Amino acid sequence: MDSTDLAHSAAAVRQEAFRQLRGRVVALRRAGRSRREIKEILGITSNGTLDRALRGEPPPEWTRRPRAKDDLHARARQLREDGLDYEEIAGALGVSKGSVSLWVRDMPRPARLRYEETRKRAAEGARRYWAAERPAREARREAARTAAAAEIGTLSQREILIAGAIAYWCEGSKSKPHRPAERVIFINSDPGLIKLFLRFLQAAGIEFVQLRFRLHIHETADVAAAQQFWMGITGAEWAQFYKTTLKRHNPQTVRKNIGADYHGCLIVSVKQSADLYRRIEGWVRSVMDDECGSAVPLAT
Question: What pTM value is reported for the model?
């Protein structure tokens, strides 16, 4: 027998010996023996030899330590089987892409999705994101509004006069050089602003019986419901309302003010209001005074 045959024969003997050793190592492992016990029983001195013998053999359950993220690990693998990519899994579970990679990198890559399916999943991801983000943002907005309202507190009579006069100068009818008319007529669709203007009139000493109202609304709206709505806001009797003005609907115009929340605009007019109009001019002029005390001319 030459040297080559001797080498092959020795290699075969070593392979057979290792195969038999591996069989005994695996049997002991499956019987619940620890690595230290297996080395002592079989006289193995090298961790490398033991690692080779146990290669491919999963560790027994009793060697696994419970981890807080085991449930996330399992869910990540399930989502990967469902075809989600790393970013989608990370977003769904609230973990990093690095963690997802460690948990599922041994799994086959899912087949490339069709464009329609990609769009569908992106839309679903956006829906889930905003389902959680929208309430959080609204909570922050409400906190800011509440804090700002606390800064104002309860208004004094003087502050109501200031706020109401400025509101009127923004939204009310004003006398023009080409059309002199000292009449107080206020129009708006915001119920809160209408209530503020009514408080302003009360602070200015105007009797409620001096007020008249007119609804200005599209003909396609629920006119009767809008009338009841504004009667509730103002506390006025129907006798104080003039005939409703109906605006014709233009089918070519895409209006957003539709539906049950659309109540049209309310016009509030004050009878015999020339003196009140002049007082409003004076209040507004005082507010618009510059730092030096000289009045800023009122725009007409």
Answer: 0.57
Q: Going residue by residue through the chain, which has 300 residues, state the pLDDT in tens, using 9 for 90 and above.
A: 566 766 777 788 788 888 888 889 888 888 888 888 888 888 888 888 888 888 888 777 766 655 656 788 888 888 888 888 888 888 888 888 888 888 888 888 777 767 887 788 788 888 888 888 899 999 999 999 999 999 999 999 999 999 999 999 999 999 888 888 899 999 999 999 999 999 999 999 999 999 999 999 998 888 999 999 999 999 999 899 999 999 887 766 666 677 778 999 999 999 999 999 999 999 999 998 865 455 555 655
Second CATH level (architecture) for the domain 70-112: Orthogonal Bundle (1.10)
Instruction: Return the domain boundaries, the chain.
Output: 3-63, 70-112, 157-287
**Residues ≥6 apart with Cβ < 8 Å to 215:** 223, 226, 227, 230, 241, 244, 245, 264, 265, 266, 267
